Sequence to fold (222 residues):
Amino acid sequence: EEDKPTKDEL
Amino acid sequence: MNIFRLTGDLSHLAAIIILLLKIWKSRSCAGISGKSQILFAMVFTTRYLDLLTAYISLYNTSMKIIYIGCSYATVYLIYAKFKATYDGNHDTFRVEFLVVPVGGLSFLVNHDFSPLEILWTFSIYLEAVAILPQLFMISKTGEAETITTHYLFFLGLYRALYLINWVWRFYFEGFFDMIAIVAGVVQTILYCDFFYLYVTKVLKGKKLSLPA
Fold:
């Protein structure tokens, strides 16, 4: 799961 | 969080609130594409499902809730409260021509073939083109109220600022998300023609009207 992009943006 | 990201978010928020206030104060949604607003409500709903599964920050959670809440409120004002003022005859863009290809593409090109990820991808692609019914409506009627142009300006500015944010994040954090970047570039390009008219007409005090 590490290479999943984080969804911190809106 | 960098300054471009923050001003981008605030610009997005400004756009949403300008539109809500315009409709509320004038008691009219004339000139506003209800179809674009439904698409934006779909964008926020499918993108922010992670509200239920992940916590990122208070800022993140609050903004998501505000965006979703405002977008549904806008749709409600257009299709229920001020329905009589809705200009459906000019809001004739065929949204299935956007939703169906965007849906297909989000199944084909995504980071991970899982329901939440596909819905997130769908929302990113859909957002890129969700303004088209509104732009189509303006090109059809040949004009837009000045307040509507302010709404469009801030909505376009938001993604343009995100582009700078992504360049920043790539250089300083090594972070990039190709799906968001490509869709964000497309989205920003769609506003370029409008930006030109906004700067050359609206900012000089003229109403936005297109030559017949």
